[in-house]
Amino acid sequence: MSKKQLKDEFNIEKNLKGIKFLLGSGIAFSLMSVCVKAIGGRIPISELVFARATISIIITRFFLYKNKINPWGYQKRLLIIRGLLGTVALFCIFKALTILPIATATVIQYIYPTFTVICAYIFLREYILKRIVYSIIIGWIGIVLVSQPELNANNNIRETIIALIIAISGALMTSLAYICVRKLSSKEHPLVIIYYFPLVSIPISIPFIINDFVLPTGTDWLWIIGIGVFTQVGQLYITEGLTLLPAGQATSLNYSQVVFASIWGVLIFKEALTSSIYLGGFCVLISTIISISASKTSQPKI
Prior knowledge:
This protein is mainly alpha-helical. It has one domain. It has helices at about 5-40, 45-65, 75-100, 100-110, 110-125, 130-155, 155-185, 190-210, 220-245, 245-255, 255-270, 275-295. The longest helix has about 35 residues, at about 5-40.
């Protein structure tokens, strides 16, 4: 076998491995959404965020200790800001999942790459290509389309609009958190960046829990554990997948979370999938791919 054939075989094996990891992350994150949706009406969001953060901090601290990595990092102020933005995003995402159908909330969350490109232009002075304008337009058309069934079916228009704003805010906070990660990644170990997320989430959640605590019972404990476990598995798999595949291909595969979430919504929660949701999801997918490709080919602004 020639060197070229060996190289091609290695690349194929590498790509297949990356695809498996990213599909696994999509399943894991979609199951996390199922857990939030299933328990969200009974347990306050702050408790879910606290539980998720507690499980995450235990697992991350273990790996930091095992690898003998200083957990406190070097850019503490930016690390705290990243943790704060991530925490706000998590509150918004969890809240949106308890109000909106899983498919709708997940599709709206995936508008974050467009926000990331815009925020990178504003805060990092990264060059923004003209095609990003098309990406933004297509993405927002997608949001309008996936929102239509909710607006048409819900008599309380104000409540629905607030839920949609919360979901969009979650996507925006996610993009800002990723901007911080981009700045931090040049000096900080990935585990340190992950560690500050729950480190900030826990103290923020505690005051809300004290004022509005509900003791989980029965299967509630399983849903809560599921939120933490599936999130950690999803993060692990997506990290592995992103190291094995090009960004554009990885992003497209990562969108599989929307597909899996839609399936769970139909099978478990009997949610209807309309042509408007299908079309809106496709628009957001196209917007995401354009945003990633534009970000990948951009150069710093002079």
